[in-house]
C-alpha cells in the first residue's frame, strides 16, 4: 500500500482520493481552502464539492503542500487546467524526490496550445519528474464516490508507469482501469469532448430534441478525431473510453458542468452569469478557445467548435449558431477524416 498525495480538493480530487483510500492507500489530499480541508479532517465530508459522501478516515486533508507530499512517490494532479502551472511551480519548489505525476484534468492551454502532460514536462525539472501518466474517461465524481461502476483509461509514454497507476486505482467492485499508450489521443479526447457537451447543453436549452444531440455528438466526434489525428493521435482512441465514452457521458449526464452551463446559455443566460452560478470549473469554455486556435493553426475544419466560439466570445446567439451549422455547404460524411488518414499513410 502506498502513500499518495492528491493535489486539488474539488469534486474529482476528492472522488479519486476516495477510490485510492478504498483500495487501502494512505491518501493525503491537498487544497488551498482551509474550510474545505477542515471539513475533510473533522467531518469526513467535502461539503462544497461532494456533499453527502462520507469520506474514509484514511484520507487526511492538508493545506501545506510540503507536508502533503512528504515521503510520496505518486502525486495525483486534480486542479482545473487554468491552475495547473501555478500548482506545478509550487510542487517543483517543495519536491525532494522524483515524482510520478498522474494528471486527471481535461483541458488544453489557450495560446501555448499545450496539452497538460506537455505543461508538466515544461514546468518540472527532470530530476523531480519520474513519469507523467494521464487518467481519463467517462467518470463523474458524484457516481464514483457512490461506488457506481465506472471505467477509465491510464495512459503514459512509459507503459510500466501506466500499468502501475492502473493497479493503484483498479477496484474490482466499481472502478475498472484500462491502459492505452496513445497519450495524445487520450488527452485530446478528454479535453475536446467538453466543447461538444457545452454545445449539446445549448441545443437542449434551445428546446431541440434527441436528433440534434445525436447529430452534435457524432459530428463532434468527427471533428475531435480530425484534429486529434493531425496532432498525431491514433484515430482508434476516439472510439474508446476517452473518446466516444467520455463524449456520451458528458453530453447526456445531469452531473456534467459543461452540459449544464450550455443548457443555461441555450436558455438565454449570459456566459458570465452562467459561470458565476456554477461555482465549479467549466473546462469547455477555455478549451473552446484553445481548440479554435488549433483548428486555425493546423487548418482543420471544426465547424461546431467554431460556432461555439462565436456564441461564447463573439456574442452570436445560440439560435443563429445552430442555423449557421445547418446551412453549411453540403459535404461527404467521411471526406475529411479519410483525407487525413490517407495523408498519414503516405
Ligand atoms: N468532477 C468530475 O467528475 C471530473 C472532473 N475532471 C477534471 O478534473 C479537473 C478538476 O475538476 P473538478 O475537481 O471537478 O473541479 P472543481 O471545480 O470541483 O474543483 C476544483 C478544485 O481546484 C481548486 N483550485 C482551483 N485553483 C487552484 C489553485 N490555483 N491552487 C489550488 N487549488 C486550486 C479549487 O479550490 C477546487 O477545490 C478538471 O480538469 C475536470 O475537467 C475529470 C473527470 C471527472
Ligand atoms: O469529465 C467529466 C466526466 O467524464 C466531467 O465533466 P464535466 O466537467 O462536464 O462535469
Automatic annotation (TrEMBL):
Pathway entry: Membrane lipid metabolism; glycerophospholipid metabolism
Domain of life: Bacteria
Binding of sn-glycerol 3-phosphate, residues: 106, 137, 139, 193, 246, 256-258
Active-site residue list: 193 (proton acceptor)
Keywords: Cytoplasm, Lipid biosynthesis, Lipid metabolism, NAD, NADP, Nucleotide-binding, Oxidoreductase, Phospholipid biosynthesis, Phospholipid metabolism
Entry binding sites for NADPH: 11-12, 32-33, 49, 106, 141, 257, 281, 283
Family designation: Belongs to the NAD-dependent glycerol-3-phosphate dehydrogenase family.
Annotated function: Catalyzes the reduction of the glycolytic intermediate dihydroxyacetone phosphate (DHAP) to sn-glycerol 3-phosphate (G3P), the key precursor for phospholipid synthesis.
Protein name as annotated: Glycerol-3-phosphate dehydrogenase [NAD(P)+]
Origin species: Priestia flexa
Taxon lineage: Bacteria, Bacillati, Bacillota, Bacilli, Bacillales
Designated gene of the protein: gpsA
